[in-house]
UniProtKB/TrEMBL annotation:
Pfam families: DHquinase_II (PF01220)
The protein's Enzyme Commission number: 4.2.1.10
Assembly description: Homododecamer.
Domain of life according to the entry: Bacteria
Site (described: Transition state stabilizer): R17
Catalytic reaction equation(s): 3-dehydroquinate = 3-dehydroshikimate + H2O
InterPro entries: DHquinase_II, DHquinase_II_CS, DHquinase_II_sf
Keywords: Amino-acid biosynthesis, Aromatic amino acid biosynthesis, Lyase
Signal peptide per UniProt: none
Protein name: 3-dehydroquinate dehydratase
Homology family: Belongs to the type-II 3-dehydroquinase family.
Pathway: Metabolic intermediate biosynthesis; chorismate biosynthesis; chorismate from D-erythrose 4-phosphate and phosphoenolpyruvate: step 3/7
UniProt-annotated catalytic positions: Y22, H97
Length: 137
């Protein structure tokens, strides 16, 4: 089982950024824990702050992964382009969020990804990624 995690803008700052909302752990150390927890899963991780790069990565992932775990961060709420890319590829995408976006500001309630995702996991902290991996097993 080969899965790709794609993280969007500002998620490179996890651990430092708004720890009250996103926690104290950086993604790299969590990613290492994930690799240990799921030795049978071949995991790749890609992070970009650039919308078009995320679209390129989604397109390139098709055929190379059995699933994609996507936290498009702020682009979730604004990017028709990322939503269209998720729709365009046959690879199943799980949308994840660290925080419970439904309990936050109104502008975070809209997702351009959710209508084309296999499912959505939000509000479990970094554990949201782990739950997404489990959904593929
Ligand atoms: C986020 C939620 C988004 O609204 C926000 O812009 C982020 C992170 C989350 O994982 O909780 O950057 O996707």
């Amino acid at each position: 089982m080969k899965l790709l995690i794609i993280n969007g803008p500002n998620l490179n700052l996890l651990g430092k950024r708004e720890p009250g909302t996103y926690g104290n752990q950086d993604f790299q150390s969590y990613y290492e824990e994930l690799q240990e927890k799921f030795p049978a899963v071949e995991l790749d991780h890609y992070q970009s702050n650039i919308e078009g790069e995320i679209i390129d990565k989604l397109q390139q992932a098709e055929g190379n992964y059995e699933g994609i775990i996507l936290n498009a961060a702020a682009y979730t709420h604004t990017s028709v382009g990322i939503g269209d890319a998720v729709k365009a590829i046959a690879t199943p995408v799980i949308e994840v969020h660290i925080s419970n976006t439904a309990a936050r500001e109104e502008f975070r309630h809209r997702s351009y990804i959710a209508p084309n995702a296999r499912g959505v996991i939000l509000g479990f902290g970094l554990q949201s990624y782990e739950l997404a991996i489990q959904s593929f097993l």
